[in-house]
Amino acid sequence: MTAALLSIRNLTVRFHGERGETVAVDGVSFDLNAGETLAIVGESGSGKSVTMLAVMGLLAKAGVTADNIFGCGRNLLNAGDVEMRAIRGRQIGMIFQDPMTSLNPVLTIGRQLTEMFEIHLGLSGAASRKGAIDLLNLVGVPSAGTRLKDYPHQFSGGMRQRVMIAMAVACKPQILIADEPTTALDVTIQAQILEILSGLQSEFGMAMIMISHDLGVVAGIADRMLVMHSGRIVEQGLVDDVFANPQMPYTRSLLAAVPRFDLETEMTP
Amino acid sequence: MQLYVMGRIVQLIPVLLLVSLIVFLIMHALPGDPATLMLAGAEGGMTSPERLAELREQMGLNDPLVVQYWHFVSGAATGDLGNSIRFREPVLQMILSRLDSTVELALFGLLCSLVIGVPLGLLAAARQGGWIDAVCMSLSYLGASIPVYWLGLMMIFVFAFNLGWFPASGGTSWNSLVLPSLSLGLINAGLVARLMRSSMIEVNGEDYMRTGRAKGLSPGLLLRRHGLKNALIPVVTILGLQFGNMLAGTVVTETVFSRPGVGRLVVSAILSKDYPLVQGAVLFLATVYVTVNLIVDIIYAWLDPRIRYGR
Ligand SMILES: Nc1ncnc2c1ncn2[C@@H]1O[C@H](COP(=O)(O)OP(=O)(O)O)[C@@H](O)[C@H]1O
Ligand SMILES: [Mg+2]
Questions:
Q1: ipTM greater than 0.85, yes or no?
Q2: Can you state the angle between helices A157-169 and A125-138, rounded to 10 degrees?
């Protein structure tokens, strides 16, 4: 077996609040292999986002400990600020849940896209502009050339999430983390966004971590899945196996809560 | 953007009309009769009733209030604010000849408050909860609680009399501007620092800042390109609203430092009951005030595209 692209051992995250300490992530270990899509599911508050933010080194005020966080050929646990910055956006791209608030309202879409090329690839001017237009075309934003001048509030939610995706994949990262990328969107838009994500994944050969509390999303897109519950991984395996034969009662209750559209469509001709 | 600015300028007209009406009514509600005062000033109190009646007729004081208001407004619209009773000079000229001194003071005061307040607030936000934060915030409260005139007097005492670095009064040379604008600026610097701090802390917690970090931006670039503009929006708004305080501050500062400005002119006009001068100067300052607010709104629209595009 080849070495995993991302390997996490015994990750624990503690927050120090006014009413004592909360353990948001409690001894999580998993691997992500090159090119695969790994889903992390679990109810809201189970520690999915915090896990990935800890890997990215984006939890300033939390206590993050682990035996090992190994990613993109580096030890991310002990990486310095400069080293982490070269990984964020360049080796690991990240998309967040709420496209309405995740883009800077006072900068144009073009500026927010081109700065990816500027800081990671040293491109500027016409080259980065062309790169930005190519990216917008890639994620299906119409009339990309003129829309670079527009501000986020001039885009719909779905279009903004496309821009977020374009930004995250601008430097062709090895890993794309999508943290509930469709939760804030209309159902019709959700399917388009998922399609774009899996299209980009195979085109760029990225590994993807898809965080969701929606098992319907997971079923369509992921190879393997982890089930998280109050900071722990309670079950993991191939998506088909877990769906067909859930081992843990918690997973069974999650599955029971999902309307099975796939079964219904089979039954009604 | 041009459309936005044009629209805002048109909106100023009713505001200024209202201000002129209020100033006019207050002036006419106050006791004292301009004609009597004028004669008292000119002829040493020997006022014959015939002379008074003649003058009242001449000055249009017997006309109905509506007509008098019309004269005031139509005059003001063409730049004629009447003549000062005491100095017998056109009010507008008197104001304009002292205006650059006041504008200079207000601008440098504003500049001082920004130059001191913004970095202090940013520093405090970056070291939130630490001792630097505590020191910055204590200084800002201190600044905000000291009266302008006291600070001005202390500055004169220390920097003019004891150290002799700057002149204590007067107002033509550059170094005579330092102490007045510092004392005016320091008062507002505290406010700016506290606003800047809370605004920056709030912006730091926004999702788009997390996006910036996830993109791999360095803290410096993240602050300059993504944080600062967003964090300045509330500061600019409040500073615009505070400009009235700033104008009031120039009145006090000009008096303390004996600077020949509009503020001091108004004070002496009030003391000598020079009604046309007070009336004209107040209308003039109100015009300056709304114009500055317009400029602030334009800066605000430039900072925040959501306003520029009418959303
Ligand atoms: N910055 C923070 N400070 C304190 N507690 C936090 C913070 N971020 C997350 N938590 C807590 O950590 C737990 C896991 O949160 P999260 O990973 O966001 O859940 P989710 O699985 O919905 O993504 C929650 O109980 C949440 O309240
Ligand atoms: Mg989450």
A1: yes
A2: 120
